[in-house]
Design goal:
The complex is a heterodimer of chains A (about 300) and B (about 350).
Chain A lengths: L10 H7 L6 H17 L2 H18 L1 H4 L31 H37 L1 H16 L2 H12 L3 H12 L1 H14 L3 H8 L4 H37 L11 H8 L8 H28 L7
Chain B lengths: L1 H9 L4 H33 L4 H6 L5 H10 L6 H13 L13 H36 L4 H15 L2 H15 L24 H7 L3 H38 L2 H9 L3 H38 L5 H10 L3 H29 L1 H4 L1
The chains are: A mainly alpha (about 300), B mainly alpha (about 350).
Pfam families (chain A): BPD_transp_1, OppC_N
InterPro entries (chain A): ABC_transport_permease (IPR053385), BP-dependent_transpt_permease (IPR050366), MetI-like (IPR000515), MetI-like_sf (IPR035906), OppC_N (IPR025966)
Keywords (chain A): Cell membrane, Membrane, Peptide transport, Protein transport, Transmembrane, Transmembrane helix, Transport
């Protein structure tokens, strides 16, 4: 931040710190940069960022990081303890556990992204409509949201998967069905605070349709809090998905889903401890990473609700 | 909705009618949530690929028997009528027969539920007894080591997979150190020795003076209760800390200090009393989520509770048992949360408005 006091510093930083941005684009870049500067000075948030970045990199570069595809059995190398060759040992079919965890990061990301793109739009739509329309629409929608909020998540997800059949897609659907309601609450609260604002009235006076107002003026303002909440919820989503996998209701073997890996490795707990414990540590680390990141993002994007 | 109506009443009337309105509102939303819950489990039961009639008559039944049972179960009626029928059965405590155990599901649930309650209750108690003082201590020493411990613990408790923690616990304390007994609720040769009075082995064995069995049950209970207790402790300590920090920053605390109140009095008599009220909701939430989370922990510890009943029924396509278990756990979950919410509203005058 010391750079800001120096007038007209040259280069990229100077452009990012210019007190009078020349374009909207530059202004946006500046806002992003300032957020990043604040974020960077928070060690806890940076730790989260590093973990999540590592997850993304692992998923993106899995073919280059790993030596095997994590699926082909190698019965000559069954249940080997951790060593220089197999960092986290091998499982009951001789597959390298480190490789499987790296490949599994793709499944974790797949679940998390899929749940997010289902949950956020539904929550936003329900919440903004309820908040903007008010009256009985609001009452009915919020009552439905309340009912979903009160539901026991894991057990319902379990029952859903039981009905639809085990598998990743159904697990995603089940998690989404039990996760969307808080987003509607958040979006509605945001809408209620800005609904009577002058800029909304101005847009209305210009003849903008309700749909346009919601889409162009209301939703962008809700996004920050929804994103923060989503990052904080990631841990819960990952844990539920892993729990379903652990119970045998999520991803099915031989897929290297972390919960399923724990489940099949359970029988080796006392003699080959690394088989079930390594994937669990991965789950722990990644959900912790999302927690820390969400905490930091909240301070940057949503200063109103920043923690003490 | 509830807030508005009670706010309208609060100006004119003192506490009693207000409490009544709050109760009425809570009961109304409880009923609505109950209807929603049963509607969803009903739909799940209908979507299920398993044929409910075949489940009753078996796949060797003749066509005639099949048709008769089909009509008896009311499957020819419109869906809403079937739902009302289902609702009626639930309200009279009838969840149908379990295929797996060949007993009424209600009877099974009554048999398995005490084990889950035992675990969840002990874990919540442990979480409160340790977590609340830790949270207060951390808030009072903000920025010192205890504060960091509580913050890290809070985040870790939020992101650790409980079933994994349970396994690591088993590995270390049962497998390597041998300090506690392994999975299960009691050693197999003690099984069924004590007559079931309450269904909670600790109480039953103590009542009948069977101390060997009591201590055996304790050694089985310690690990799962500690794992769940750690989760409860992390959450309760974290919330206590943040509530406490919130209170300590208020002006009435400053006023109390200026008045010359001792530090002990400021912390426990002024700030903590307000925190305690807020904690009611948190404790309720913890208890409810432990009941729900039993599905995972009970699998790890082979604990014969409702969670394990639901999951084993699930793999045997025993849909009556799954739905019955889901509804019962769901009702407990919803009920505990509503109850703690209501208690909070009654205890804190500011939350009534």
């Amino acid at each position: 931040m010391t750079m800001a006091t120096q007038p007209r510093a040259a280069g990229l930083r100077g452009w990012l710190m210019d007190p009078s941005p020349a374009s909207t684009w530059q202004a946006r870049a500046q806002r992003g940069y300032l957020g990043w500067v604040g974020f960077r000075s928070n060690p806890i948030a940076m730790a989260g960022f590093v973990i999540v970045a590592a997850l993304l990199l692992a998923a993106a570069f899995a073919p280059w990081i790993t030596a095997t595809d994590g699926l082909t059995p190698n019965l000559g190398a069954r249940l080997l303890p951790p060593s220089a060759e197999h960092w986290l040992g091998t499982d009951q079919l001789g597959r390298d556990i480190f490789d499987r965890i790296v490949w599994g990061s793709r499944i974790t990301l797949y679940i998390v992204i899929l749940v997010s793109i289902i949950v956020a739009p539904i929550g936003l739509a329900v919440g903004t409509i309820a908040g903007y329309a008010g009256g009985w629409v609001d009452a009915v929608l919020m009552r439905i949201v309340d009912i979903f909020l009160a539901f026991p998540r894991l057990i319902l997800a379990l029952a859903f998967v039981a009905a639809l059949g085990a598998g990743i897609e159904n697990a995603v659907l089940a998690i989404a069905l039990t996760t969307w309601s808080p987003y509607a609450r958040i979006a509605r609260a945001e809408v209620l605070t800005i609904r009577k604002s002058d800029f909304i009235v101005a847009a209305e006076a210009q003849g903008a349709s309700t749909f346009r107002i919601i889409r162009r003026h209301v939703v962008p303002l809700c996004l920050a809090s929804v994103i923060v909440r989503l990052t904080l919820d990631m841990a819960g989503i990952i844990l539920t998905a892993a729990g379903l996998g652990f119970l045998g209701l999520g991803a099915q073997p031989p897929l290297p889903e972390w919960g399923a890996m724990i489940s099949t490795g359970r029988q080796f707990l006392l003699d080959q401890w690394w088989v079930p414990t390594a994937p669990g540590a991965a789950i722990f680390l990644v959900s912790l990473g999302f927690c820390l990141l969400g905490d930091g993002l909240r301070d940057v994007l949503d200063p109103k609700s920043a923690s003490a | 909705m509830t807030e508005q109506t009670s706010a309208a009443a609060s100006g004119a009337f003192p506490a009693a009618p207000r409490a009544l309105k709050a109760t009425a509102g809570a009961v109304l939303s409880l009923v609505l949530t109950f209807l929603g819950l049963t509607a969803i489990t009903f739909v799940i039961g209908r979507v299920m690929p398993a044929d409910p009639v075949l489940a009753v008559v078996g796949d060797r039944a003749s066509e005639e028997v099949y048709q008769r049972v089909f009509l008896e179960m009311g499957l020819d009626k419109p869906l809403y009528e079937q739902y009302l029928r289902y609702l009626g059965q639930i309200l009279t405590g009838d969840f149908g027969m379990s295929i797996m155990t060949t007993r009424p599901v209600t009877e099974d649930i009554l048999r398995f539920f005490p084990a889950t309650l035992e675990l969840a209750t002990l874990a919540t108690l442990a979480g409160c007894l340790l977590g609340i003082p830790m949270g207060v201590w951390a808030a009072v020493n903000q920025g010192r080591w205890i504060d960091h411990v509580v913050r890290v613990l809070g985040l870790a408790g939020y992101s650790v997979p409980v079933f994994w923690l349970g396994m690591v616990g088993l590995l270390v304390f049962y497998g390597n150190l041998g300090w506690v007994a392994g999975p299960g609720r009691i050693d197999i040769y003690y099984d069924g020795v004590v007559d079931s009075v309450t269904g909670v082995i600790l109480i039953d064995s103590a009542l009948q003076g069977e101390w060997d069995i009591f201590w055996n049950a304790v050694s089985h209970l310690v690990l799962p209760a500690s794992v769940l207790g750690l989760y409860a402790l992390a959450y309760i300590a974290r919330m206590t800390r943040s509530f406490m920090l919130d209170q300590l920053g208020q002006e009435y605390i400053l006023a109390a200090r200026i008045k010359g109140a001792s530090e002990f009095s400021v912390i426990w008599r002024h700030a903590f009393r307000n925190v305690l009220v807020q904690l009611i909701t948190i404790i309720g939430l913890t208890y409810a989520s432990l009941l729900e989370g039993s599905v995972l922990t009970e699998t790890v510890f082979a604990w014969p509770g409702i969670g394990q009943y639901i999951t084993t029924s699930l793999f045997n396509a025993d849909m009556n048992a799954v739905l019955g278990g889901t509804v019962v756990v769901g009702i407990c979950f919803v009920g505990i949360n509503m109850l703690s919410d209501l208690l909070y509203k009654l205890a804190d005058p500011r939350a009534r408005a």
